[in-house]
Design a protein that fits this description.
With 584 residues, this protein is of the alpha+beta class. The protein has four domains: 3-112, Orthogonal Bundle (Arc Repressor Mutant, subunit A), CATH 1.10.10; 120-141 and 285-337 and 557-583, Periplasmic binding protein-like II (D-Maltodextrin-Binding Protein, domain 2, 3-Layer(aba) Sandwich), CATH 3.40.190.10; 164-268, Dipeptide-binding Protein, domain 1 (Alpha-Beta Complex), CATH 3.90.76.10; 342-551, Dipeptide-binding Protein, Domain 3 (Dipeptide-binding Protein, domain 3, Roll), CATH 3.10.105. 33% of the residues lie in helices and 23% in strands. It contains 19 helices and 23 strands. The strands form six sheets. Strands 15, 16, 17, 18, 19, 20 and 21 form a seven-stranded mixed sheet that branches. The chain has a five-stranded mixed sheet with strand order 4-5-14-13-12, with no helix packed on it. Strands 8-9-11-10 form a four-stranded antiparallel sheet, covered by helices on one side. Strand 4 (120-125) and strand 5 form a beta hairpin. Helix 4 runs parallel beside helix 6 and helix 5 runs antiparallel to helix 6. It is globular and about 100 Å long. GO terms for molecular function: DNA binding; peptide transmembrane transporter activity.
Amino acid sequence: MKVIEHFILLRDHYHTVQTNIDLPISKKDLLPLYKCTNRNLNLILNKLHTEKYIVWNPGRGRGRLSTLRFLLPLEEVAKSYIHSLIKEDRYTYTLDFIQNTSLSWKTKEKMLEIVRLEFGLKMEDDQENAQSIIKIPITTKLQALDPATVNHKTEGHLTRQIFDTLIIYNHRKDVFEPNLAFTWKESNNGASWTFYLRKHVHFHDGQILTTKDIKYTFQRVMDPSLKSFAHSLLEDIVELEVYNDWIVTFHLRKPSYYFLHHISSLYCAIVPEGFSSNNLIGTGPFFVKELKEDVVKLEAFADYFKEKALLDKIELRILPFSKDLVDYQLSTKTVKPKKAHNIQYGSRYVGFNFRKSGYHHHIRFREALRLLLDRKQLVNDMETVQTLPSNSFLYTNSQSYQFNQSPLDKAKILLQESGYKGEQLHVYYFDMVEAHELANWIQKQSKKIGLNLMFHTIPIHAIHDQHLMKTADMILFSVIFSDEEYSLYSYFKAEFGFLRPCLNDEQKGIIDHFLEAFHLTRNKEKRKQILQMIEGYLRENLFILFTYHVENVISYNEFIDGIELNSSGWVDFKNMWVDPLKSS
C-alpha cells in the first residue's frame, strides 16, 4: 500500500477529527486498522509524517499518549488520488483499492462517484475543435474481434463498428440493402449471384477494396481450420468467379434464395487480402486506435464510404465486475438520466453433451433437471442482469407459457429412477459474470436433490476443444440473436456453433431433415414454422433446458441523441451524438 493510501485509510477512520487539531492517541488503537506489526506501524507513521500528511508526536514514557494531527482533509486527498490513478489509466487498480480497503461506506461512495463520472458520452476539447467521446465500462473480457470467429455479443457489436458486409439485411423492413456492393443480380435459378462493388472504398490502412478482398474473405471463412460459425453455412459455394476489380460471382452447388442472408451475416464481413486478427483492418465507420487486454479505443474513420460517424471516439474499459459500477451505461449522476430498453432475441439454456455417455442420456435425468430449474425462482434470484423466464429462444413464444413452481421432491424421485447414485458430473460455462451467478444458483439447487455437480469455467472459443467434449456432461449456454429467422436457422445449421457440437448424429440428422424443407420454401411464414418445429423437437425431448431471457436497460444523459438499442442490447455508435447546447 502506498503512503497516500495509508493516509486515506487513517483519515477516513478518524473522519470526524478536524484538520490541524491534535488527537491524543495510542499506537494500540492503530494496529487493528493497519493489521500489521508494531515495527511496520512505526514505519507507516514516520512516512506519513515525513511526507507532511500528518504530524506524529510519539508519547514518551509509560502511559503517555502520542498525538496525531492531520494536515490535509480527506475529501481533497482522496479526490486528487483517484483522479491521478484514472489519468494513468489504472481503472482496475482504482476499483480494487476502493472496494477492498477498509474504508467507510460514505468515503467509498464518494470515490466511486469520481470513477462513474469518467464514463458516459461527453465533449472533450482538443487544440483545434471539440470532439465527442463515449467511455463505457464493461465486465466481459474480449476474446477476439475477428468477424469470422466472433462468438460474443459485445465482440460482435464492436466488430460491426470496424467491418462491413457486402449487403445488409434490414429485418424490420424484411429487405436487403446495398452496402459495399451497390447492387447484385441472381441468375441460373438462384444458383449464381453476382455482386457489383462500390469503387474507391478505403480500408482503414488506405488500401482500396477490390474483388480480391472478397474472394480472400470467403475462402478464409470456408477454411475448416478457422472453425468459423459460417463455415457450414457457405458449404454450397463451389466457385468465386472474379471478372475484374469490381464484379464477382458466387456459383452455388444448388439454387439458394437464402444465400443473401449468408452474405449479409457479420461472419462474412469483408477483410483485406492477407488479413490478420492481430491487425484489425476493415472498412467500417470506426478504426482501431488501441487494443489491449483492459481497453479498446476506436476512432471515427474519416474516409468511410458512407456518412461519417457522428461520434468521434469510443473507449471501452474492461473492468472487474462491481455492483457499484453498472456495466455498459451511458450516463452519470450529474443529470436525470433517460432509459432505453428491450428484450434480447435468444435465451440462456442448459445444454447436454450427447457426444459423451452418461446419465444425461436418460430422459428421467433430464426431467429431474427441468424441475430443478425453477425458472420463476431463478429470475427472482438473479441480481447481475434483469431477466424474464424463457421456454423458447424467442420471448414472444415464452410470453404465452405458464411457468409453475417446480416440486423438488419429484425431481429427487426422477433422479433416482435415472439410476444416478451420486457420481460427480461436470458442468462447463463461459467465464462471464452473469454465467457465474447462474452456475452458483444451479449448484445450490442441485444439492437439494442430491445431484453432485462440479462447475468449470471456459473461454467462449473453447466450445470446439476436443478435451471439453470428452469431459463435459453439461454446458451452460448463452445465445443472442440479431433477428428471429436467420440467427435461429444458422444456430441450427452451423457445425462450429454452440448446438451441433453437442448433438449426436441421429439428432443432427433429424434437424437436417427439417432444414432441407426450410431451404425448399420461399414462404417466410412456412420457414418460421419449420424453425419452431426444430425448437419444439429440442425442447420436448429436453435436449436443451431453457432458463431465461435478458432484458437490456441502459441509462443515458438527456443531451445524448441517436439512442436506439439493437437486438443484442447495444447502441449503434455511429448514430450517437452529443447536443452541445444541452450538455453545456
